[in-house]
């Protein structure tokens, strides 16, 4: 039995039965498997509905139906607290006669790689929506990389570019230059870029190879995106 004396009145009070029963109730509550009726359910919303919210307060919670994650408002953005890496990896490999690298001098073409070539897609924030086209559903800073190689690059000086487009506008070159080869040979290029993206932005990876309208055989094509 627990007792205490009030500092002002000096009256001795007994807490034994009340405290003992309270501890028993708490122990029973945490010691038993929860039932559905004891669980708390937060509001559900799509990413579009979440983006349209106004007057949010820091610490608010909502369940994102699109990403299947619990989001909280950290003061300026809705974010998902997760230890899961948020990374997308696309890879297409082919050593045959494929003519995958189409070209026309100084003209951009989309990377010929899509959702069927996903090797990894974690974090629930990436949507591969077309050849070389990826949509992100969460605002953040992203590290983006792309690469391709061919087995029949022509001799001489051949101009090449890997460009990154955001919502249709060119935002930077991941790689750019001239391949200078004495003979037709295997060749490849790659590059990276860090860029901030908003929720529902679409990034597009495109290339230029000046080979006088003659397609080339791709050995591999790769795209990688990681939220930092």
TrEMBL record:
It comes from Flagellimonas aquimarina. InterPro entries: Tumour_necrosis_fac-like_dom. It comes from the Bacteria. SUPFAM superfamilies: TNF-like. This is Uncharacterized protein.
């Amino acid at each position: 039995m627990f007792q205490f004396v009030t500092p002002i009145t000096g009256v001795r009070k007994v807490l034994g039965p009340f405290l003992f029963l309270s501890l028993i109730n708490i122990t029973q509550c945490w010691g038993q498997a929860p039932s559905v009726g004891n669980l708390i359910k937060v509001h559900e919303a799509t990413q579009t509905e979440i983006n349209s919210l106004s007057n949010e307060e820091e610490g608010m919670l909502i369940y994102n139906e699109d990403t299947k994650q619990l989001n909280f408002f950290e003061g300026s953005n809705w974010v998902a607290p997760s230890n899961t890496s948020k990374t997308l990896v696309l890879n297409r490999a082919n050593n045959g006669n494929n003519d995958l690298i189409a070209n026309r001098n100084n003209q951009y073409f989309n990377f010929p790689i899509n959702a069927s070539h996903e090797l990894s897609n974690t974090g629930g924030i990436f949507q591969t929506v077309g050849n070389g086209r990826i949509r992100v559903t969460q605002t953040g800073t992203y590290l983006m990389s792309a690469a391709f190689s061919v087995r029949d690059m022509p001799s001489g000086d051949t101009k090449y570019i890997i460009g990154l487009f955001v919502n249709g506008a060119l935002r930077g070159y991941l790689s750019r230059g001239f391949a200078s080869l004495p003979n037709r040979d295997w060749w490849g290029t790659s590059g990276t870029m860090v860029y901030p993206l908003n929720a529902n932005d679409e990034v597009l990876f495109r290339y230029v190879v000046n080979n006088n309208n003659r397609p080339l055989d791709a050995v591999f094509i790769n795209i990688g995106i990681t939220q930092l």
